[in-house]
Amino acid sequence: MKLRTLLPVIGGLGAAVVLAACGPDQQPSTAGPSAADTPATVAPGTAAPTPQVLKVVQVKGFQPFVVNGRGRTIYRFDNDRTKPPASACLGACAELWEPVLAPRGVKIVSTAIDRDLVGTFVRPDGGRQLTLKGWPLYYFKDDLTLGQTAGYGKDGAWFAIAPDGSKARRTASQPAGAGYGN
């Protein structure tokens, strides 16, 4: 008889614990994957999801700037907002200037990038876009070779991003679209 009386109480306590753990005040990590982004298991024979990689390169004619793990140039857009981060590049713009998404977090492989400057925000389409010092990050669709900077200076508003979040400046005459070592 006592077991019948205790079962509803035990069930209620269990539900309360689960609901408390899922409270609305929890904030996702700005640089790492959230629990929702990390699969519980990885199917045998499949690769585990990899985080977005950020590193810094030195390209002739430029101050050091940030690229992804494969050397693709990363840009910032002067029309974006940084506090809080928000993208002004939506729709057709986001097809030409592809957002740097980080659904599995980020791996920083350069000491020149301060981890505290790296974060994410959720785009209107639901994608988690990477930021550096609040600046939303992008790839230029026409950068066809690694380290290419064809998007640099487009519309006077698109620039390769330096490790501190500023615009990576040109250091010498550099033709548009040049790549590593040119």
SSE blueprint and pairings:
Blueprint lengths: L1 H20 L30 E6 L7 E4 L6 E3 L3 E2 L2 E2 L5 H5 E3 L6 E3 L9 E5 L5 E5 L2 E2 L1 E3 L17 E3 L22
Parallel strand pairs: 1-7
Antiparallel strand pairs: 1-2, 3-12, 4-5, 6-11, 8-9, 9-10
In short:
The chain is of the alpha+beta class.
Structure description:
- A hairpin with a 7-residue loop joins strand 1 (52-57) and strand 2 (65-68).
- Residues 3-43 and 177-182 have low confidence and may be disordered.
- The chain has 182 residues and is α+β, with helices and mostly antiparallel strands.
- The strands form 5 sheets. The chain has a 3-stranded mixed sheet with strand order 2-1-7, with no helix packed on it.
- It has a domain at 54-160.
- The longest helix is centred in the N-terminal third of the chain and has 20 residues, at 2-21.
- It is built from 2 helices and 12 strands.
- The chain is globular.
Secondary structure: number of strands: 12
Summing up helix and strand content along with how strands pair, one would put the structural category as alpha+beta
H-E order: HEEEEEHEEEEEEE
Spatial sequence of strands, sheet with the most strands: 2-1-7
β-sheet strand percentage:
15-25%
Low-confidence stretches: 3-43, 177-182
Q: Report the radius of gyration as a whole number of Å.
A: 21 Å
Biggest sheet character: 3 strands, mixed
Number of continuous helical runs: 2
Helix content: 10-25%
Shape: globular
Q: If you average the pLDDT, what whole number results? A: 78
Distance between the termini: 84 Å
